[in-house]
Amino acid sequence: MEQRRLGKSGLCVPALSFGTATFGGGNDFFKAWGATDASGAARLIDVCLDHGVSLFDSADVYSSGLAEEILGAAIKGKRNRLLLSTKATFPAGTGANDFGSSRQHLIEAVDKALQRLGSDHIDLFQLHGQDYNTPVEETLATLDQLVRSGKVRYVGCSNFSGWHLMKSLAVSDRYGYPRHVAHQAYYSLLNRDYEWELMPLGADQGVGALIWSPLGWGKLTGKIRRGEPAKPGTRARELAGSGPQCEEEKLFRIVDALAAIAAETGKGVPQVALNWLLQRPTVASVIIGARDEAQLVENIGAAGWALSADQVARLDQASHVQPAYPVWHQRGFPMLNERGWA
Q: What does the alpha-carbon distance between residue 110 and residue 30 come to, in Å, rounded to a whole number?
């Protein structure tokens, strides 16, 4: 498995990492993702490690902490062979301080995560979302405290807007706090908004992208075709009204292009969709998930080869959408954009 530098940090991460939202199935929402128990998780983790997939990502809200517990149980005796990533910010309880990026909540959230994971440190701790209520200075000072204590080694964020991430980086530089070296963001052929501001920001500031839901909420697996709706029990069917949305014709256009390239390469539709992401700028690692071993092995097969320039261009064309302002305006002046980021 290819190892990539995470942003400007010294940490190397595998090109593919494993997301644990499928562990536990603690409520109806997460049951639609999966309900892997500890023994099943241990087997999936062994398969990952055998293939060089050594970064495992979780969050305190995944099945209300159950995913972290299952992950912790599954990695016993293997901690020195892998990297742990987790997140906190969203409501993890009903109390007034059970959410957000305050000093009160983050310290408590990290301590609870360490207990559930059965580890003395988290390799990458990420803010799961923006907290407009807490001063950025308080949040970053707390992350600095957690790094200095040894409980956290690197920090990142997830689902941030460009301005909020840039503000955080500026405050870190001003006070000497740890910088966000990772941004866990949604990005897929289905929705390419990440490219408009977050990608050029990441390239300029050295923030590596960890990509979540790279198959567009399960819509880019090839199981949804013209005249073939999502099947019952799949995430694309059970959670059709949530997550990223896309016009049906655009989805079919992308899947048609994926299927044609899959036939040319001898790869699966999901493998082609994942490989396209692996070639995008700033992408450090693509987070894959799986309900079972066969699905996991198929997804791991997205690495170790590369689409041709022509195939990438065809997928770019099939998934193209008019960008938001001011990006479409900036693209009209290429002489002001020699780096090609607009």
A: 22
Question: What confidence score (pLDDT) does residue 36 get?
Answer: 85
Q: Are the CB atoms for 126 and 184 separated by under 8 Å?
A: yes
Beta-bridge partners for 183: 157, 209
Distances (CA, A) of 209 to 3, 91, 180: 14, 24, 11
pLDDT of residue 289 exceeding 60: yes
**pLDDT tens string 110-142:** 999 999 999 999 999 999 999 999 999 999 999
Active site residues per annotation: 62
In DSSP terms, 287 is beta-bridged to 17
**CATH number for the segment(s) 3-316:** 3.20.20.100
Count how many residues are written for the chain: 342
Q: Are 13 and 284 a contacting pair, CB within 8 Å?
A: yes
> Contact at 8 Å (CB) between 197 and 225?
no
pLDDT of residue 232: 65
Work out whether strand 83-88 and strand 122-127 pair parallel, antiparallel, or are unpaired. Answer: parallel
DSSP H/E element including 186:
strand 180-186
Structure tokens of 150? 């040894």
Give CA–CA dist 253/225, Å, rounded: 10
pLDDT confidence of residue 29: 66
The confidence band for 334, taking pLDDT boundaries of 50, 70 and 90, is confident
Global pTM exceeds 0.70 = yes
The three-state secondary structure class of 280 is coil
Rg (CA), the chain: 20
Residue 103's φ and ψ, nearest 5 degrees, are -60, -45
The CA distance from 154 to 121, in Å, is 10
Q: How far lies 23's CA from each of 18, 38, 62, 188, 202, in Å?
A: 11, 8, 8, 23, 30
Closest CA to 65 of 107, 30, 103: 30
User: How many CB atoms within 10 Å of residue 262?
Assistant: 18
What's the mean pLDDT when you consider all of the chain? 92
Q: Which amino acid is at 156?
A: G
